[in-house]
């Protein structure tokens, strides 16, 4: 290459470094994140201009994507509230709880007339946080952008005030939580002290890692939630929820670590997520309706469960649930409905379809006589179960009984449809069977094993 060309390249590289790369501060700094936000907005602007010139339809298709990322308008740099700005160190040792609280208060109260704000947890940082409540209602819609790692204190004494929650979003509407970061419950100490692991220990509650309570219009996506003290992600009394592209993990031996727990929630979609825990991958309990779980990878764990319902003679209602396209591997159960004796209410209009089972101990199970004691008396009431369809379910069972319907003598299970179900032995040398009591069945297509 000619010397003149080398000189020109060196000059251009120097200009680029001074005018472009020099804009970016340390990755943990607030200014770095604000520059990323400005670049993101600039890129979006030019993409809109290009689509508008090329084809109006492209622009129309592009706008919903922007709206999903920044509801009701974009967040300018002045509306980005980084926890670093409020004193968070992100070194994994300093208590950053107060900084998180201050940043949230500012983001939550920053707007009006539908203005949007961003609560930011920068990348390349590990932020140690004790129990904190993100309290609503807010004057603006908020995007919670978690790009770094939030890790819980492992000291149980830090949870003395309230052992139920670690990160609690309470009465918050119109919130997007995303960013590609990690929420780590640091739960090993809690598991070791569980009565399920160590029977000499008292049975006590442990915190849920992330809880949304009485929230509306919630979108949680593109996050890893791991090692929860107990449950990983819970939606209680919420409406209009989307949870997608989540990686939810904890060791298979970790007790009561449900992946996603749905309670008293209406209209929720759980999609494109991998859940590997020590308890239910997804659990759906009373008061929930219009629940969809699609494209789920589950296992290890206890499978996908509706229930338990009707504990302590309570009334329970669950309806309009669809689990579609799931792969369940190495779990205790596959798809399960579990109700206590003595309860009341109904679980109805439930569909499990397009599911692959790999070495699952109880692939299909309804237990309407659940009891956690050795001897349980037959009760005169039960949570009714009706209109349940199992369609296009195939795979292998780790036990001889691949299908079990243990339904109540009082009410029984009604309108149970089996359509194209084929469950064979994982061992291949044994045959599978079905155990069925007090159940009204309708068969379509090839079904095996049959009652």
UniProtKB/TrEMBL annotation:
Enzyme Commission number(s): 3.2.1.15
One Pfam family this sequence matches: Glyco_hydro_28
GO molecular function ontology, one term from the record: polygalacturonase activity
Residues spanning the membrane: none
Known catalytic reactions: (1,4-alpha-D-galacturonosyl)n+m + H2O = (1,4-alpha-D-galacturonosyl)n + (1,4-alpha-D-galacturonosyl)m
Highest rank taxon of the organism: Eukaryota
Active site per UniProt: 302
Signal peptide from the UniProt entry: 1-22
Location(s), subcellular: Secreted, Cell wall
Keyword annotations: Cell wall, Cell wall biogenesis/degradation, Glycosidase, Hydrolase, Secreted, Signal
Entries under InterPro entries matching the protein: Glyco_hydro_28 (IPR000743), PbH1 (IPR006626), Pectin_lyas_fold (IPR012334), Pectin_lyase_fold/virulence (IPR011050)
Gene Ontology annotations of biological process type: anther dehiscence; carbohydrate metabolic process; cell wall modification involved in abscission; fruit dehiscence
PANTHER family to which the protein is assigned, alphabetical: PTHR31375
Family (UniProt): Belongs to the glycosyl hydrolase 28 family.
Protein name (database record): endo-polygalacturonase
Source organism of the structure: Kalanchoe fedtschenkoi (Lavender scallops)
